[in-house]
Amino acid sequence: MGGMELGVPQDPRPRGRPLSVLVLAENEDEGRTIAARLQRGGHPRYLAERRGLGEIASLVPNGTYDAVLLSVEDPGPALAALRLVRHTLGRTPVLVIAEGLEAAQAELLREEGAQELLERTEIQEPRVPLLERTIDWAVERAELGGELERARQVGMHLAHHDTLTDLPNRQFFRSRLRQLLAQARRHKRLLAVLFLDLDRFKQINDTLGHTVGDRLLVEVARRLSGCIRETDLAARRGGDEFTVILDGIRRGQDAARVARKILLALQRPFHVDQHELFMGVSIGISLFPADGQDVETLVKHADIAMYRAKAQGGATYRFFLPDMNDKALERLALEQSLRLAIEREEFVLHYQPRVDLKSGRVIGMEALVRWQHPDLGLIYPDEFIPVAEETGLIEGLGRWVLQTACAQNRRWQDEGLPRITVAVNFSARQFQHKHPVDLVRRALDKSGLAPDCLEIELTESAVMQDAAVALETLSELREIGVAVAIDDFGMGQSSLSYLKRFPITTLKIDKTFVRTLLVDPKDAAITEAIIAMAHSLRLRACAEGVETPQQLEFLRQQGCDEVQGYVFSPPLPVDRATELLAGARPQITVRA
In angstroms, rounded to a whole number, what is the distance separating the alpha carbons of residues 489 and 506? Predict the structure, then answer.
């Protein structure tokens, strides 16, 4: 075991501080001598501390030492002492000094973690530089091994965690859920799986870019982690989908409580760069053992429940119910049929008149899409628009509605009918399109319709997803002469500070308030307030869903500008809408 056979470097490695070496010697005199040799000179390269073998058990595993020299008189105790040192000091490199080692003993010591085996002649004064180089080499190898171990741990972490949010990924989630299900079976415990899908994330991502989208996902992950216990698990499934395991819950309402907490956390505005963004989430919940016995079934059923939540408008949660499986199959069939319907142009527009309360004249028509299904007949938008929005089909369908409505209004004008405005609803996805104003320009150019004969209707939630971007888009629409109405006003989350800055022309009072304004004083007060606010902002107020003369009279007394609803006319096919424009005035009484 001569020095040159050890393969150590010929020159000590450079370092900025002395190495701390613990000398554990069976012979006290020898230990003292070794420590003294390592600390020779005015600027020692080593700080040596001497202990006896009996003091090993009292060592504190605090990473104080860079290396250990273990010197034993008899090879017999070497193995036991090495095991105790390794147990106490972990990965600190150990160099064993012993004489008369047999090959089998040497192999056992190496297997137990001895970095080097030295004979006593190799630590005598003439050969101390060799001892120093051996210590240096052992420390270097230990540091390299530590780096490799850290790299391995980082690799393991990356393999099981999402690189963007640092949440566990889909593979880790499935593995952990499998383990927790086994424990839940043994201990007869409940377990919940939550499946989350962000509402309207794709529109933000497409409009503002992936950098903003990624930062938004990181913030969502942070808020989500803050809503669960340390014993639970939140993971990113991919895209804007997340999953959560709630372990050891007592009842289903515990899962509902967490779902409500998540909803509230994600409803608060997100501030990313200069953007104020509003983000909702749809949550589906499945429970073990009632809704599934294995990973695949529980995740699938939570996913189905999430789609039910999204179909009901999003920003809510739903528990899985057995009949949802059938609903999911129906939804899949509907999606497939919808794709074909867009290709085959199976859609038609109906038009509902808007009436000016002062003159009693029809001043506009709202275009409302219907699906003329070849087998099922006329299908109303409530049944297919949510699916179109979720799947992205709304963009193609919305483009067709816009172009068709503009062309029809121009056709009415060419026929000599009264000049009116046609209103077209823009979904949040259409409005968050990269170039929504270009869509409008192309429709106007293609049809030849004047811009002031078109009105775009947007919901509050669509506008408030990113108020700054909305302000820019609405300003461009107004610059080219297109009117803008806020639809279903009062049901969203408008900021009045933004509302007064938005270049809009009309507030449409949601039919929910109109329907009960005669029996619910609160709804009556809200309706009055919206009309007054519209007028203070120099906007027109239009009430939707007006069905009775009594509602009409109330709105007239409050100074409402326009009405729309069955009190005058339901949505009409194009031929009947044409007859209305060409013929009789509306049958409503207008006071002088």
Answer: 10
DSSP E strand boundaries for 122-240 = 190-199, 233-238
**Which pLDDT score is estimated for 376?**
79
Q: How far, CA to CA in Å, does 580 sit from each of 230, 415, 421, 521, 587?
A: 65, 13, 15, 35, 11
CATH number at residue 349: 3.20.20.450
* Cα 331–Cα 332–Cα 337 angle in degrees, nearest 5: 95
172 burial level (CB within 10 Å; 0-12, 13-18, 19+): middle
pLDDT at site 459 = 84
Q: Which domain holds residue 88?
A: 3-158
Domain-located, residue 415: yes
pLDDT of residue 103: 80
User: CB of 421 within 8 A of CB of 363?
Assistant: yes
Those residues of the chain that have pLDDT short of 50 are 1-14, 42-43, 584-587, 589-592
E strands of 250-332, at which residues? 270-272, 275-277, 280-288, 317-319
Measured CA to CA, the distance from residue 317 to residue 300 in angstroms comes to 15
What pLDDT is stored for residue 11 in this prediction? 44
H or E element in which residue 20 lies: strand 19-25
